Amino acid sequence: MEKKIVYRIFTIADYEREALYFREMHAKGWKLRKVSYSILLFVVKYTFEKCQPEQVSYQLDFYPMEKSERASYIQLFKDCGWEHITDFNSFSYFRKAHSEIESDAEFEIYNDATGKLAMINRILRLRLVPVLLLLAIHI
C-alpha cells in the first residue's frame, strides 16, 4: 500500500475548506486514511493512501461524545451511506462517493441551516470560548 503524508494547517473554522482539500486529493488518487497530531505546533498530519481517482464528497462533524455513544453515532451516518474514516480532536471524518449520491442534499452531512448552525455552536462553545476566557484572564 502506497501512502503519502502531508502536513497542513487548518483552523477549527476551516472544516469546509479541509473537506474540499480531501475531495481534491481523492480526485488525484489519494484517499484520506488518518488524521493525527504532528510534532510541529499547530500543524496536523494527514495520512493518505493511494487509490483510483474518484469524485468523493468528504464531510467533517464536530460532536464530542462519550465512548458509549460512538457506535450508534457512526451507525447513523453509515445508514445514510457515509463511510467513517477516522476521528481527530472531536471531529469525525466521513466520505461518500458521488456515484452513491442521489440528490444535492446528500452532498453534505448537514444540508440544512439548522444542522450547520448546531455544529458551529458546538465548535464555538467547546473550542473557542475556553480560549477566549484564557486570553481574557491573561490580559
TrEMBL record:
Source organism of this protein record: Streptococcus pneumoniae
InterPro entries reported in the protein's UniProt record: DUF2812
Protein name: DUF2812 domain-containing protein
A Pfam family matched in the record: DUF2812
